[in-house]
Design goal:
With 411 residues, the chain is α/β, with parallel strands linked by helices. The protein is built from 13 helices and 14 strands. Helix 4 links the parallel strand 3 and strand 4. The protein binds S-adenosylmethionine (SAM) and iron/sulfur cluster (SF4).
């Protein structure tokens, strides 16, 4: 068969009777059930992909049941709606970080300014219902892991009610929370009852004085109480996040090693990143993961790398040689893990960000607040993921620190 343009069809379709599944059984009320159309139907009938202009050509020239052809079109459309969030570097995104506020009850120097912070207006924050709607739209795109963060998420009133709403969404497999722990003792039980199971508590030092240097506030004892309360109500493990800063963290390393061994909490050191409101970050101020590994190995005992069960997890985990005490490292500066990043973020005021270090963001609040359709939100999520850059470029001269500091993005 020769087409009007002189080419021959790539594949000769078989007659309808040769198809292994009778097409009419897959048509209900004149609509083809997309899930009943199998990939082989498409490849048998349409090669290359069918588009509107080739439709009439195929119909005219091919011995094919038109219903099968239509079903193929439907199948292609529904499959493209269900495509997961894969960016142009092949990274699959299933992990959403949700910031619920930019407010905080302490002032870590690597994150917030010391004083006079301009917070978002309450009316600017997404409501719990708007957050829930967003997650419901994101789940069919493959989002199944959530982490609540901030600012300090526990200053958002009745956070456990949001956890409850999110835990009830079919398809959500995992909800985590990152907190500074100050208000954790009073909320741990409610959060656990609401369905939260994973908790990370940020604590940069094991002495009250050093804690105050990091946070510019008191509260060390409250954080310790929070950790104990979380362990008591059943969070296991509780993970401790400590930002590693040269000139400050060195004397905390060994105490943290013993803390991990004695309390069963996992301790994770996070290399200090250029996301501070004061713009004071310098590479020279980062205490690198390998230096901490060396110090722990010499001063306590050798650390053995654990296999990484989750290849997308940013932390590399180690355990002390005797099997007691787990230490992790998020080496964003010395060993960037951008190529395995599976995360997108939504800020408390509804801006979608495809990277912590992104210079662009997509404002979803108008869509969520002013009647935008699910399709429009889906489209915005897809566009954001498609535009994700290869990596953060901190180690190059091209790096530009984003305008939003960590507390207003959501770490
Ligand atoms: C922004 S905080 C939000 C949640 C909560 N307030 C807390 O501190 O856990 C999330 C995490 O980001 C970390 N973080 C903040 N600024 C950072 C920076 N410049 N470099 C590395 N980690 C940072 C914090 O230590 C914390 O573990
Ligand atoms: S790191 Fe967390 S606790 Fe510290 S100032 Fe930022 S938001 Fe607050």
């Amino acid at each position: 068969m020769v087409r009007p343009n002189g080419s021959t069809p790539a594949a000769k379709c078989r007659s309808p009777s040769e198809h292994s599944v009778a097409p009419q059984r897959r048509i209900i009320n004149g609509r083809v059930r997309p899930e009943s159309v199998r990939p082989q139907d498409v490849s048998q009938c349409i090669r290359p992909n069918l588009n509107a202009s080739s439709w009439s050509l195929l119909e005219a020239n091919c011995e094919i049941n038109v219903e099968i052809l239509r079903s193929c079109l439907d199948w292609q459309t529904s499959m493209s709606e269900l495509l997961p969030l894969i960016d142009s570097f092949g990274r699959l995104h299933n992990n959403l970080r949700i910031s619920v506020t930019d407010r905080c009850n302490i002032r870590c120097f690597y994150c917030m300014p010391a004083e006079n912070v301009e917070f978002m207006e309450k009316s600017e924050l997404l409501t719990f219902e708007e957050i829930e709607r967003f997650v419901r739209v994101a789940v069919p795109l493959g989002i199944n892991k959530l982490r609540l963060t901030g600012g300090e998420p526990l200053v958002r009133r009745e956070l456990h009610k949001l956890v409850e709403k999110l835990a009830a969404i079919p398809g959500i497999q995992d909800i985590g929370l990152t907190t500074n722990g100050i208000m954790l003792a009073e909320q741990a039980a409610d959060l656990y009852a609401a369905g939260l199971r994973r908790i990370n508590v940020s604590l940069d030092a094991l002495s009250p004085e050093k804690f105050k240097q990091f946070t510019r506030r008191d509260g060390f004892e409250k954080v310790l109480e929070g950790i104990k309360a979380a362990q008591r109500v059943g969070f296991d493990p509780v993970k401790i996040n400590a930002v590693s800063v040269r000139g400050m963290t060195e004397e905390e390393v060994v105490p943290f090693g013993h803390f991990a061994r004695e309390t069963g909490a996992d301790v994770r050191f996070i290399e200090y990143m250029p996301l501070d409101a004061d713009n004071a970050w310098e590479r020279g101020k980062v205490l690198f993961a390998h230096e901490i590994i060396e110090q722990l190995s010499t001063e306590i005992m050798p650390l053995i790398p654990e296999g990484q069960p989750d290849k997308n997890a940013p932390a590399t985990d180690f355990v002390f040689e005797d099997g007691i005490g787990r230490i992790g490292f998020i080496a964003s500066i010395s060993q960037p893990f951008c190529m395995s990043c599976n995360r997108i973020r939504i800020t408390a005021d509804g801006k979608l960000r495809n990277c912590l270090f992104s210079l662009d963001e997509t404002d979803l609040r108008p869509l969520l607040r002013e009647g935008g359709s699910d399709a429009a939100i889906t489209e915005a999520i897809r566009a954001s993921v498609a535009a994700k850059k290869e990596g953060h470029e901190i180690n190059t001269a091209r790096f530009i620190q984003p305008d939003r500091p960590m507390y207003s993005i959501g770490g």
